[in-house]
């Protein structure tokens, strides 16, 4: 029970910072403005980790490598701490690979949350200020699905299809992450 509590606390702490690093990565990749509450939150949570890394890891085009490495380091800390606490026998390479799959799982989970927020806001507050940011985050993912699906009475099912795809991807990544040990 103690290990479950520690795992939960570590998961929340590293997930918050690592998820914010991934949000920073995606927002910079898509050149989204940071002059909004979400952008300010992302900077506040990640600057302490990303800015020192940026001195050694410059951006590669639109890819913010410092944010990506920061997210991976957060997951690596979580996986390593749990490995030490449980006394599990694991190869160092297995820990590195498990943390990489963990970051991909964060990305899938984060995109799922953003899709849900987008779908709900599109029904209840389609003209809200957050809708523009959410729309720019999800449209590159929804557009190909929307083009492939037939219109069903004006109802857009592309968010539902994408959520199912993301859930399957999340299950596969979780299996790969824990199979890495």
Describe this entry's structure for a reader.
- The chain has 181 residues and is an all-alpha fold.
- The longest helix is centred in the middle third of the chain and has 33 residues.
Helix content: over 70%
Secondary structure: number of strands: 0
Largest sheet: none
As residue ranges, the low-confidence spans are none
Query: Number of DSSP helices?
Result: 6
Mean pLDDT: 91
- Work out the radius of gyration: 18 Å
Shape: globular
> What share of the residues does DSSP label as strand, in percent?
under 5%
Q: Which structural class fits the helix and strand makeup? A: mainly alpha
SSE order in H/E notation?
A: HHHHHH
The CA-CA distance between the termini, in Å, is: 21 Å
Q: Domains counted in the coordinates: how many?
A: 2
Secondary structure elements and their pairing?
Blueprint: H1 2-29, H2 37-56, H3 65-86, H4 92-124, H5 129-148, H6 158-179
Helix pairs in contact: 1-2, 1-3, 1-4, 2-3, 3-4, 4-5, 4-6, 5-6
């Amino acid at each position: 029970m103690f290990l479950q509590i520690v795992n939960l606390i570590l998961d929340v702490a590293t997930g918050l910072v690592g998820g914010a690093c991934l949000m920073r990565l995606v927002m910079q990749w898509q050149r989204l403005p940071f002059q909004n509450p979400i952008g300010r939150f992302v900077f506040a949570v990640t600057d302490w980790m990303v800015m020192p890394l940026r001195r050694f890891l410059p951006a590669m085009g639109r890819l913010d490598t410092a944010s990506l490495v920061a997210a991976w380091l957060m997951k690596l800390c979580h996986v390593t701490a749990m490995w030490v606490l449980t006394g599990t026998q694991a190869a160092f390479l297995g820990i590195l690979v498990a943390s990489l799959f963990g970051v991909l799982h964060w990305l899938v989970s984060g995109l799922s949350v953003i899709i849900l927020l987008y779908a709900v806001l599109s029904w209840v507050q389609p003209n809200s200020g957050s809708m523009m940011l959410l729309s720019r985050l999800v449209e590159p993912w929804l557009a190909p699905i929307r083009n492939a699906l037939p219109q069903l009475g004006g109802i857009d099912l592309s968010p539902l299809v994408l959520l199912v795809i993301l859930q399957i991807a999340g299950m596969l990544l979780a299996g790969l992450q824990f199979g890495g040990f």
